[in-house]
Amino acid sequence: RNFIFRPIHELSDHYEDLITQAIRILNSEWPRSHTIRRRALESSCSSFPMCLILAQEFSDKLHVIGHAKISKVPSDPQSVFVESVIVHPGLRGKGLGKYLMLRTEEFCWDLGIRKVYLTTTDKQIFYSCCGYKFSEPVCAFGGSSKLNLNFNNFTSTSSNNNEN
To answer: How far apart are CA 61 and CA 86, in angstroms?
Structure first.
């Protein structure tokens, strides 16, 4: 598989089309106005928040397969909060969600991030299979504190998986 995984703000050649595709995928799961989604995606920048896009090229066009947004945890500079993790509805059940999380974790590790937090109400089994565990609630903007999961050990494919 030849996937492209990058922050959306770094994909300037295909930016508008990728924004439109990401809005469509995100709104398929969590409907919001087009304007609100666009603003959230356009806020992606190197100093956070970052909207990460998993895409694949075919027929000379990039197609968005998945999305994950990472934001800094204000109380811990080595932590991020992951939200809006989604795989295109027509491509689910093929391991792409796990791949998206793995790439997101590797991306965070490369930035010096050592803890990744997320909130879920219906995907606990999926995230536990990815190595996440329950944690104490974390104050992060844009998330619910109903259920927080914490991933401390980047064991996926990171060569630094024993560091804290």
So the answer is: 20
β-bridge partners, 6: 53
Residues 97-122 as b or e (16 or more Cβ within 10 Å = b): bbbbbbbbbbbbbeeebbbbbbbbee
DSSP track, 81-97? EEEEEEE-GGGTTSSHH
Beta strands in the chain (DSSP E): 3-7, 50-58, 61-73, 76-87, 115-119, 133-134, 148-151
Task: Measure the CA–CA gap between 43 and 36, rounded to whole angstroms.
Answer: 11
Q: What angle do CA 157, 138, 126 make, to 5 degrees?
A: 45
110-114: long-range contacts at Cβ-Cβ below 8 A with a sequence spacing of 24 or more?
112/78, 113/78, 113/79, 113/80, 114/78, 114/79, 114/152, 114/154, 114/163, 114/164
pLDDT tens per residue, range 68-111? 999 999 888 899 999 999 999 999 999 999 999 999 999 999 99
The number of residues in the chain equals 164
What predicted TM-score, i.e. pTM, was given to this entire model? 0.83
